[in-house]
């Protein structure tokens, strides 16, 4: 099967599987991550290898299908593997794509699982996903997700959790949207794996810091 046909089928799967998600984790998020990942891959010198570029694109397209935050049915957990099998993706590529998808979450980094950093494709896909979590779009997504879970914007009495574990991060305990910046988003710049990702993260990180400064001044009636 040609790459263009498989890409179209993957896009169709994304639209079907993510329909009904809030706008923080919808198909538009996936399209942005795919475009960022392909751009980072070119900057990192992967564009001369068509297999690498295909792995990057498919992993980016399929990375949020079966996300634990949105899973509605246990069968959704195997959607990606079933898709790759049905489309006849060769075993070595399939294994790499699944390794990237299964290892790129923030929760996995908290637990010390860095199983696939040796794969050059891993860094660009993970960095692309993390870039979409910071900056102006990251701010918009953070408040969209918080609103979808009825979280308060901010409560000075609820302090950000420090030394967060994987289990704590995944628990749906009472938390504020502003605390999510301190618990996760402001940490992502230092966790970028590629030089291209690190460069792009700088401006997005600064934008978030400026936003939080302004937010707190307005919250406290100083601005």
Automatic annotation (TrEMBL):
InterPro entries: HD/PDEase_dom, HD_domain. This is HD/PDEase domain-containing protein. Pfam families: HD. CDD domains: HDc. Coiled coil: none annotated. Residues 22-143 form the HD/PDEase domain. SMART domains: HDc (SM00471).
């Amino acid at each position: 099967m040609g790459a263009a046909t498989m890409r179209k089928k993957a896009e169709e799967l994304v639209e079907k599987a993510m329909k009904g998600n809030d706008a923080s984790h919808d198909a538009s998020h996936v399209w942005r991550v795919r475009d960022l990942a392909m751009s980072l891959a070119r900057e990192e010198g992967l564009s001369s290898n068509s297999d690498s570029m295909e792995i990057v694109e498919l992993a980016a397209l399929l990375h949020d299908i079966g996300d634990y935050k949105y899973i509605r049915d246990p069968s959704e957990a195997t959607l990606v593997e079933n898709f790759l099998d049905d489309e006849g993706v060769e075993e070595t590529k399939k294994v790499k794509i699944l390794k990237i998808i299964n290892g790129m979450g923030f929760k996995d980094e908290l637990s010390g699982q860095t199983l696939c950093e040796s794969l050059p494709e891993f860094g660009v896909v993970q960095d692309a996903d993390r870039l979409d979590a910071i900056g102006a779009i990251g701010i918009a997504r953070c408040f969209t997700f918080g609103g979808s879970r009825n979280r308060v914007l901010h409560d000075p009495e609820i302090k950000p959790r420090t030394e967060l574990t994987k289990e704590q991060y995944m628990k749906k305990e009472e938390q504020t949207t502003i605390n999510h910046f301190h618990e996760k988003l402001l940490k992502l710049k230092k966790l970028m794996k590629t030089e291209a990702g690190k460069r792009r993260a700088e401006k997005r990180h600064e934008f978030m810091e400026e936003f939080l400064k302004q937010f707190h001044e307005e919250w406290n009636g100083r601005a």
